[in-house]
Write a structure and sequence with these properties.
Layout lengths: L4 H6 L4 H15 L8 H14 L5 H12 L4 H15 L1 H14 L17 E2 L7 E2 L2 E7 L5 E6 L4 E2 L2 E4 L3 E8 L1 E5 L5 E3 L4 E4 L5 E5 L5 E7 L6 E4 L5 H10 L2
Antiparallel strand pairs: 1-3, 2-5, 3-4, 4-12, 6-13, 7-10, 7-12, 8-9, 8-11
Length: about 240
């Protein structure tokens, strides 16, 4: 997404600074995602701002950016807490009100109860998810049936079900499903998605809503999942914005 904040605010006053901000910093440095992910760049930038004592709208922007790039509420609270011991306690105290404002729309898992229960944090598969998910096993006999809950902004990586497919029964909130080279689909309670074997796809919550579905594994000899790359943060943000 093209950045225009520099030109919008300083285009007439300091055009060169605006150009460097929009075209070099955000247009080139932030776009080098093959070297360092947007999520990591967000964490580094927030660390630098808090350490420097810069507690203003720029910090709010970058905390919001970090949230959009997959940093969960729990992770952000831990980042600021960790910084308190290195950057200074007063700086962390000053950052927390901004943190609370940005993440205020996120309900805690204790206050969100999907139809089949939220279960436990999905720690076993956390490396294949952006954001926080929860899993509640419902049946493991003959076929696996699991309730999977996604916090706002959470989604899994691109992946493929080899040999055996999967069925999703949407029960709560608003989600997104997308197959490779196809347009994304919005998901709501009552929607059913059949995922054929060998189809590259991803699914998860929208940026501002919890989402839960029942995942039914279709049995097949030698079936397994292949986990692939993360969903591009910019692409995900654009998908969510188009749905509003």
């Amino acid at each position: 997404m093209k950045q225009t904040a520099g030109r919008d605010q300083l285009g007439d006053t300091a055009p060169k600074f605006a150009e460097l901000n929009d075209d070099v910093l955000f247009g080139q440095i932030w776009e080098r995602k093959d070297i360092l992910s947007l999520r990591d760049r967000s964490v580094i930038t927030i660390t630098s701002l808090i350490t420097s004592g810069i507690i203003d709208n720029s910090l709010k922007y970058h905390i919001q950016n970090a949230k959009n790039n997959g940093v969960t509420k729990t992770e952000m609270a831990e980042i600021i807490t960790h910084l308190a011991f290195y950057a200074g306690w007063p700086k962390a105290w000053a950052a927390f009100p901004i943190f609370k404002e940005v993440y205020s729309s996120d309900s805690s898992s204790r206050s969100y109860t999907p139809l089949f229960g939220i279960g436990s944090p999905n720690s076993e598969y956390s490396e294949y998810f952006t954001g926080q998910s929860y899993i509640n096993p419902l049946n493991k006999n003959v076929m696996g049936i699991y309730n999977v809950t996604f916090e706002p902004g959470c989604r899994n990586n691109w992946h493929i079900h080899h040999k055996g497919g999967q069925i999703l029964l949407c029960t709560d909130g608003e989600g997104i499903y997308q197959e490779w080279s196809k347009s994304p689909i919005r998901l709501h309670p009552g929607d059913v998605v059949y995922i054929a074997p060998e189809i590259k796809h991803w699914h998860g919550a929208s940026s501002d809503s919890w989402f839960a579905h029942i995942a039914i594994e279709i049995p097949a000899d030698g079936a397994y999942n292949e986990w692939l790359e993360k969903v591009d943060n910019e692409q995900y943000t654009l998908i969510c914005e188009k749905g509003k």
